[in-house]
Description:
- The protein is α+β, with helices and mostly antiparallel strands.
- It is 40% helix and 14% strand.
- The chain has helices spanning 2-20, 50-65, 69-78, 117-126, 146-153; strands spanning 98-104, 107-113, 134-136, 139-143.
Amino acid sequence: MKRILLLIVTMMMLLLAIGCSTDSKETSPTAANTSEQKVEPADSSAPATDETTTDQATTETAELQTSSLDEVLRYFEEQGIEADNKDKPLFEMIDAIDGVMFYSDLKVVKIYQYDSIEAYEEAKASNSILDQMQQKGIFVLETKDQKIKDLFEQLP
């Protein structure tokens, strides 16, 4: 009886040790574990109107205003998002030139920077994971945090 009790207590301690040692941070989304919808690009077959041309010109101007990851992070901080404990994600795996990773509301936020929009398009052709990420100019966002996605969309 004592041996069975000792065995049960030992097993419980082992399970407790295993349970407490797991990492509680959210894992980064992959093609297998994400259920987010793809961000569809605008229909390029639509006829160009003055409004479309104006929007494209505004977008190009906006892209020129934000040209570095430091400026993107400064924008998020101005919006009340703290980007403390920054790390570098494996940005080379998706052919980016730079990247930053931080946590917002316990959700991982990764921002990648490309050399140009053409470089992003080339990387997108060879990395299907980019289809699931939000793109703005030369920057790409990977997160499940809707607040961050909304702020990224308004990036100047």
